[in-house]
Design brief:
Elements: H1 17-23, H2 25-40, H3 45-54, H4 63-78, H5 80-89, H6 102-115, H7 120-133, H8 141-159, H9 164-167, H10 171-181, H11 183-192, E1 199-203, H12 207-214, E2 217-218, E3 224-226, E4 243-245, H13 252-255, E5 264-268, H14 274-281, E6 285-290, H15 293-306, E7 311-314, E8 326-332, H16 347-350, H17 353-372, E9 374-384, H18 393-402, E10 406-408, E11 429-431, E12 449-456
Parallel strand pairs: 5-6, 5-8, 6-7, 8-9
Antiparallel strand pairs: 1-3, 1-4, 2-3, 9-12, 10-12, 11-12
Length: 458
């Protein structure tokens, strides 16, 4: 009698919606997918998250599960260096190749165990189930269980021996910041990235009223700061156009243009439109230029929500040549965005030295063309949300060397709301993410920003 063949192993059975939500698996699966997209496929977190929430695998998740998924991802990225150090202590042969989502599963599991106070039995069980769900990772389900058990037992001891700000900063960024700003300031920058940034809003009017309504506080700049509270679109005042999201540092460059009443102003690389809105509220007639049709459409939608109107033009701001020159120009140039890592913790793992060199070339072309669009005696503010001197101080120095008609119009120490340390001796604006300290880390900080106010003579 011929022995019968064993029945083929059934694929994982889809869990019922009710049971699935009860055990918290959907949030963990979403977090694993997001981390896989960022760390293994090198996709920007905001892009992946937007697609997932607008019609993808997070579309029908309850708000609580969405928030949990985002928290797991944020913690995993902010603490990746520490988590890798712990995991590597228990992966004697390293990670196996072609293992699907094994690494994001281990990383997010360790984040929950070590930084999110998730009970060990829950974190381990859910991580194993995630591995079993992935055809490429399921053969390693026992590895997941064994490694995360050791993380739960010994991880805290390993963490205690690590310099968190340093180990969570990739070498390429750390070396840059030490060269540019010194080791002490590099540590301050890196430490600020371990805390999620608060949410700053620029309000059209009545900041005190909005602060009370949103349970926030009014900053010296007139911005309203609050702690993150889920989806921005669901906050009071969003749909009625009472405010827009804009870090306090990002609000400074437009204000450096001074009195704009009746002036014709170009906002180059304008999307998503926060600075355009500032210029309009200041009384300027604004031409908003962006090369991306998608981003320009977003700008137009944002202005419509705010009840504001500007002329919008799809064009390459590095070559665009309108018939009439401008009284003032704001160029918030594309950059490495290393000043925004507090709110974009994926940046250290998506950008590189090569990106900064390429962006610096683009910034130089944008600056040269912006100067050609400026009336004699006009004002140009150039800004980037970067901590890299090549995208800030060095750009302005090189521009003035190429064009003797351009000079710095120095920022007065009292201009940035009385905080004299933001106004450098050279007259430019330079902010760091560890500045603007309030009464707790959660309420403190600002984006790292560079801005210079320039005038064209003759």
């Amino acid at each position: 009698m011929t022995a019968s063949k064993p029945a083929p192993k059934a694929p994982p059975r889809p869990l019922s919606r009710t049971r699935d939500h009860q055990v918290g698996l959907p949030a963990r699966r979403a977090a694993t997918n997001l981390l896989d997209a960022v760390l293994q496929k090198k996709q920007p977190l905001d892009d992946v998250l937007g697609r997932a929430q607008d019609g993808g695998y997070m579309f029908d998740l309850p708000a609580r599960d969405r928030a949990l998924a985002r928290a797991i991802v944020g913690t995993s990225l902010r603490r990746r260096g520490q988590l890798d150090a712990v995991l590597n202590s228990f992966l004697e042969r390293g990670l196996p190749a072609k293992a699907g989502t094994l690494y994001p599963i281990l990383l997010s599991g360790a984040a929950q165990l070590l930084f999110m106070n998730v009970p060990a039995h829950a974190a381990l069980d859910l991580a194993v189930r995630l591995a079993q769900w992935d055809p490429k990772a399921k053969r390693y389900d026992k590895l997941v269980n064994a490694v995360l058990r050791r993380v739960a037992d010994k991880g805290t001891e390993i963490l205690s021996k690590l310099n968190a700000p340093r180990v969570n900063t990739p070498d390429w960024l750390w070396d840059r910041w030490v060269r540019a700003w010194g080791k002490e300031r590099a540590l301050e920058i890196a430490a600020s990235h371990l805390v999620e940034a608060p949410l700053d809003l620029t309000v059209k009017s009545d900041p005190e009223g909005w602060a009370e309504r949103l349970e926030g506080r009014v900053l010296p700049s007139g911005s309203v700061r609050l702690l993150p509270k889920g989806r921005i679109e669901e906050l009071p005042g969003f749909s009625e156009g009472g405010w827009w999201v804009q870090d306090v540092a990002a609000s400074l460059p437009a204000k450096m243009l001074g009195d704009l009443a009746g002036k014709r102003v170009a906002d180059l690389c304008a999307a998503p439109g926060g600075k355009t809105a500032q210029l309009l509220l200041a009384g300027a007639t604004v031409v908003a230029v962006d090369s991306s049709p998608t981003r320009l459409k977003l700008l137009e939608q944002n202005l419509k929500r705010l009840g504001l109107a500007a002329e919008t033009i799809q064009a390459d701001a590095a070559t665009w040549q309108p018939e009439e020159r401008f009284d003032a120009i704001l160029l918030d140039a594309p950059c490495s965005s290393t000043g925004t890592i507090r709110r974009h913790p994926d940046i250290p793992y998506l950008k590189s030295d090569k990106d900064i060199a390429e962006l610096a070339g683009l910034q130089a072309r944008l600056l040269d063309n912006a100067v050609s669009l400026l009336k004699p005696g006009g004002t140009l503010v150039y800004s980037t949300c970067s901590l890299e001197p090549e995208e800030g101080e060095a750009q302005v120095a090189a521009l003035m060397a190429r064009n003797p008609a351009i000079r710095i119009d120095p920022l007065r120490p009292d201009e940035p709301f009385g905080d004299t340390e933001w106004a450098q001796a050279s007259g430019i604006l330079r902010t760091f993410p560890f500045q603007f300290q309030l009464d707790s880390p959660e309420w403190s900080g600002m984006d790292g920003f560079f801005a210079a106010r320039l005038t064209r003579e003759g």
